[in-house]
Protein backbone atom coordinates (compact mmCIF):
# COMPACT_ATOMS: atom_id res chain seq x y z
CA UNK A 1 0.00 0.00 0.00
CA UNK A 2 2.00 3.01 -1.27
CA UNK A 3 -0.07 5.42 0.82
CA UNK A 4 1.16 3.75 3.93
CA UNK A 5 4.80 4.23 2.91
CA UNK A 6 4.15 7.92 2.40
CA UNK A 7 2.37 8.17 5.73
CA UNK A 8 5.19 6.38 7.52
CA UNK A 9 7.60 8.82 5.90
CA UNK A 10 5.58 11.74 7.19
CA UNK A 11 5.30 10.41 10.72
CA UNK A 12 7.68 11.96 13.23
CA UNK A 13 8.82 10.41 16.42
CA UNK A 14 7.50 13.15 18.60
CA UNK A 15 4.50 13.42 20.83
CA UNK A 16 1.56 15.11 19.26
CA UNK A 17 -0.64 17.53 21.05
CA UNK A 18 -2.69 16.06 23.83
CA UNK A 19 -5.94 14.42 22.81
CA UNK A 20 -4.78 14.34 19.23
CA UNK A 21 -6.93 12.07 17.07
CA UNK A 22 -5.53 8.66 16.24
CA UNK A 23 -5.37 7.60 12.59
CA UNK A 24 -5.78 3.83 12.83
CA UNK A 25 -4.60 2.06 9.67
CA UNK A 26 -4.44 -1.59 8.79
CA UNK A 27 -1.37 -2.39 6.73
CA UNK A 28 -3.39 -4.79 4.61
CA UNK A 29 -6.12 -2.28 3.90
CA UNK A 30 -6.85 -0.60 0.62
CA UNK A 31 -5.15 2.62 -0.40
CA UNK A 32 -6.62 6.07 -0.29
CA UNK A 33 -5.68 6.84 3.28
CA UNK A 34 -3.40 9.74 2.42
CA UNK A 35 -6.05 11.41 0.29
CA UNK A 36 -8.60 10.86 3.01
CA UNK A 37 -6.26 12.38 5.59
CA UNK A 38 -5.69 15.42 3.38
CA UNK A 39 -9.41 15.77 3.00
CA UNK A 40 -9.82 15.46 6.75
CA UNK A 41 -7.39 18.34 7.32
CA UNK A 42 -8.95 20.31 4.48
CA UNK A 43 -12.39 20.16 6.03
CA UNK A 44 -11.41 21.93 9.23
CA UNK A 45 -8.57 24.40 9.76
CA UNK A 46 -8.56 23.52 13.44
CA UNK A 47 -7.24 20.02 12.79
CA UNK A 48 -3.53 20.22 13.50
CA UNK A 49 -2.30 16.66 13.39
CA UNK A 50 -2.92 13.01 14.04
CA UNK A 51 -1.11 10.12 15.65
CA UNK A 52 -0.47 7.40 13.08
CA UNK A 53 -1.12 3.88 14.36
CA UNK A 54 -0.56 0.93 12.02
CA UNK A 55 -1.93 -2.45 13.00
CA UNK A 56 -2.24 -1.26 16.57
CA UNK A 57 1.31 0.07 16.86
CA UNK A 58 2.10 3.73 17.21
CA UNK A 59 4.27 5.01 14.36
CA UNK A 60 4.42 8.70 15.10
CA UNK A 61 2.88 12.12 14.81
CA UNK A 62 1.76 13.39 11.40
CA UNK A 63 1.28 17.13 11.29
CA UNK A 64 -1.22 18.91 9.13
CA UNK A 65 1.57 20.84 7.41
CA UNK A 66 3.42 17.67 6.48
CA UNK A 67 0.34 15.81 5.34
CA UNK A 68 -0.68 18.51 2.90
CA UNK A 69 2.87 19.81 2.25
CA UNK A 70 5.62 19.18 -0.30
CA UNK A 71 6.14 15.53 0.59
CA UNK A 72 2.56 14.84 -0.31
CA UNK A 73 2.90 16.86 -3.50
CA UNK A 74 2.32 13.85 -5.70
CA UNK A 75 -1.26 13.72 -4.60
CA UNK A 76 -1.92 17.39 -5.04
CA UNK A 77 -5.25 18.21 -6.56
CA UNK A 78 -7.30 16.23 -4.12
CA UNK A 79 -6.82 18.86 -1.47
CA UNK A 80 -8.84 22.05 -1.48
CA UNK A 81 -10.31 21.37 -4.87
CA UNK A 82 -13.95 20.61 -5.36
CA UNK A 83 -13.10 19.09 -8.71
CA UNK A 84 -10.89 16.57 -6.96
CA UNK A 85 -13.63 14.00 -7.11
CA UNK A 86 -12.69 13.33 -10.71
CA UNK A 87 -9.15 12.34 -9.79
CA UNK A 88 -8.57 8.62 -9.47
CA UNK A 89 -7.03 7.01 -6.45
CA UNK A 90 -7.90 9.36 -3.66
CA UNK A 91 -10.43 12.05 -2.84
CA UNK A 92 -13.23 9.49 -2.88
CA UNK A 93 -12.25 8.28 0.52
CA UNK A 94 -13.27 9.87 3.73
CA UNK A 95 -12.02 9.10 7.20
CA UNK A 96 -14.67 8.04 9.67
CA UNK A 97 -14.43 9.59 13.11
CA UNK A 98 -15.09 7.28 16.01
CA UNK A 99 -15.49 8.18 19.65
CA UNK A 100 -16.15 6.38 22.89
CA UNK A 101 -19.73 7.18 23.99
CA UNK A 102 -18.78 7.40 27.67
CA UNK A 103 -18.51 11.03 28.80
CA UNK A 104 -15.02 12.06 29.87
CA UNK A 105 -13.35 9.02 28.32
CA UNK A 106 -9.63 9.76 27.76
CA UNK A 107 -9.53 7.83 24.49
CA UNK A 108 -8.99 10.36 21.69
CA UNK A 109 -11.00 10.46 18.52
CA UNK A 110 -10.07 7.53 16.31
CA UNK A 111 -9.99 7.93 12.53
CA UNK A 112 -10.52 4.88 10.35
CA UNK A 113 -11.04 4.12 6.69
CA UNK A 114 -13.44 1.27 7.27
CA UNK A 115 -16.01 0.61 9.90
CA UNK A 116 -18.10 -2.48 10.32
CA UNK A 117 -21.33 -1.51 12.06
CA UNK A 118 -21.88 -5.11 13.09
CA UNK A 119 -18.43 -5.40 14.61
CA UNK A 120 -17.27 -1.94 15.63
CA UNK A 121 -13.90 -1.40 17.29
CA UNK A 122 -13.90 -1.21 21.07
CA UNK A 123 -12.73 1.65 23.23
CA UNK A 124 -9.14 0.89 24.36
CA UNK A 125 -10.01 2.34 27.76
CA UNK A 126 -13.46 0.83 28.26
CA UNK A 127 -12.78 -2.51 26.67
CA UNK A 128 -16.38 -3.69 26.49
CA UNK A 129 -17.69 -0.46 24.98
CA UNK A 130 -18.10 -0.09 21.23
CA UNK A 131 -16.83 3.08 19.62
CA UNK A 132 -19.48 5.14 17.90
CA UNK A 133 -19.37 7.41 14.88
CA UNK A 134 -18.80 11.02 15.84
ZN1 LIG B 1 -13.95 4.86 26.54
Give the arrangement of secondary structure elements.
Elements: H1 2-10, E1 22-25, H2 33-43, E2 49-54, E3 57-63, H3 64-67, E4 96-99, E5 110-112, E6 132-133
Parallel strand pairs: 1-2, 1-5
Antiparallel strand pairs: 2-3, 4-5, 4-6
The structure holds zinc ion.
Structural descriptors:
134 residues, six-stranded mixed sheet, 3 helices, 6 strands, 18% helix, binds zinc ion
Structure description:
With 134 residues, the protein is an alpha/beta fold. It has one domain (2-78, 90-133). It has three helices and six strands. It has helices at 2-10, 33-43, 64-67; strands spanning 22-25, 49-54, 57-63, 96-99, 110-112, 132-133. Strands 3-2-1-5-4-6 form a six-stranded mixed beta sheet. A hairpin with a 2-residue loop joins strand 2 and strand 3 (57-63). The radius of gyration is 14 Å and the shape is globular. The model is unreliable at 76-90 (pLDDT under 50). The structure holds zinc ion. Zinc ion is lined by residues 100, 102, 105, 107, 123, 125-126, 129.
Brief summary of the model shown:
The protein has 134 residues and is α/β, with parallel strands linked by helices.
> Whole-number average pLDDT?
83
Q: Spatial order of the strands in the main sheet?
A: 3-2-1-5-4-6
| Number of spatially distinct domains | 1
Discrete helix count: 3
Bulk shape:
globular
Distinct ligands, ions and cofactors found in the model = zinc ion
Give the termini separation.
27 Å
What is the strand content? 15-25%
Amino acid sequence: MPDLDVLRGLARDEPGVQDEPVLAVEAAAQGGTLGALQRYFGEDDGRRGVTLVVDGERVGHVSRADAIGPLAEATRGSYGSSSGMSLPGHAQYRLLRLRCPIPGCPTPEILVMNYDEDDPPRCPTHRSVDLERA
